[in-house]
């Protein structure tokens, strides 16, 4: 479609000969009509109105005459639809598009937008010693998808799991462990035991607040390199990571670096020094902060009264280090919207420190997750553990598969792909900033807007292809309405990829995959394939091949697996 836009733009530039209307700016005036029956491409004439000082209606009418006299290549007809000039592409152009898609294969929709550029992405990043709960799901799967989309667009990507492995809470854990725990129990029970110790500290400290001072002391020992505390902290980290890796494996999520907060503990003093030198630090009741009143934000805390560092201090040190290490063109942070202020504050501090790349730091916030309408509050203990959520998803998917297709080979593997896929798909369906609710019946409905529906459609395309011979795509064909629409939908893919990249919005791909499934299923119901012959059969099989490719790519971009049989 881009080619058509450029061709039409060139013709308009020559026709208007108006310096304010260049062939380069005109493509922005195009839209996709809401319903393919209205056309394939729409020129929104109101966007030209100001420059041309004419009404959109008059412009559309004038251009309709112009284009009808000599239709551009690939265009079959032009209509004026209330100030929009709608173009219908020709069948031969559609077939050409289809042939090009098939030729590009798995690369269709990819680009070199990010060629030579590096994007660093900080996602998942749990606080160790805590079990993975549903609150970590968003950052993990949104971050993973954003990373994959960038890679597909040619970026070099660096996925960082910025483990929360530093701070006074580790002093609490050390105290609790020394008082009420044992290495044996931690090794045996794993993260469950660490969690128990952490919670126990909370209840005990309520009775005896002096425990908090002891915890601070233990943390300062850790900070100054006390061998025993370091040994324990390493143990806690190892045990936690072991548990997290299982979840990552299940989700198919991976990282290039696990440099967590502790990695920056020796890199913070330099930050504090620089802030001092640049006169950015203010003392406030013994604590050090950067005043951000001029930017309508509360101050950014840098050091506590006892001199220990804080979350923003570590983030600043990490950003400076990452810039040096990776020379990134952008550094993206995926967290819940609750942390938006934190990021806005320290991004500002980096800017005030005179780093002209501060605008390459991007915060990508998302909404909250709930299950059957219930919010997840970690403090009240009302947490849904990811393990449990996945177990339930896989079990439920397994039961449905057992009923639908009892003879399926490797049922367990497929149940895993479908169950996990249902969770991911449901989480990436709405704009990320919206709250996600989990409703099992909805998320697993094979006929709804779900992962299983999309995976099932993919498997249908595979099964058609597996049962038929390989016939090359014809050069030309007469197309029926469903075939036309299917090609139009497939043709939207490259544009959707770019939009999801620019907006850090995986849901654009998720929703595209649903549109594609719908278009394909409409085609499948209306156009017999096996009984078709000659050119018609060749075209229909080619459409199945294109759907398999494009649907497969879109599902992979949001982190789903695509079994060929379900
Ligand atoms: N560990 C933090 C948490 O669980 C998230 C870290 C996000 N990344 C960052 N660079 N601050 O809330």
List the helices and strands and how they pair.
Blueprint: H1 2-16, E1 30-31, E2 41-44, H2 46-52, H3 56-69, E3 75-81, E4 84-89, H4 91-104, E5 118-122, H5 137-152, E6 156-160, H6 168-180, H7 183-189, H8 191-207, H9 210-223, H10 227-251, H11 268-277, E7 281-284, E8 287-290, E9 300-303, H12 311-326, E10 330-336, H13 340-352, E11 361-366, E12 369-371, E13 374-375, H14 386-404, H15 411-427, E14 436-438, H16 440-443, H17 451-466, H18 481-491, H19 493-502, H20 507-526, H21 534-557
Parallel strand pairs: 5-6, 5-10, 10-11, 12-14
Antiparallel strand pairs: 1-2, 2-4, 3-4, 7-8, 8-9, 12-13
Mean pLDDT: 94
CATH topology (level 3) name of the largest domain: Rossmann fold
The SS-based structural class is alpha/beta
Put simply, the count of helices is 21
Number of extended strands: 14
Helix content: 40-55%
Number of domains: 3
CATH superfamily of the largest domain: HUPs
Please tell me the CATH architecture of the largest domain by its name.
3-Layer(aba) Sandwich
**Biggest sheet descriptor:** 4 strands, antiparallel
Low-confidence stretches: none
CATH class category name of the largest domain: Alpha Beta
Q: What is the C-alpha radius of gyration, as a whole number of Å? A: 28 Å
Strand content: 5-15%
Q: How many angstroms separate the termini?
A: 34 Å
Spatial order of strands in the largest sheet: 1-2-4-3
Small molecules bound:
arginine
Note the overall shape: globular
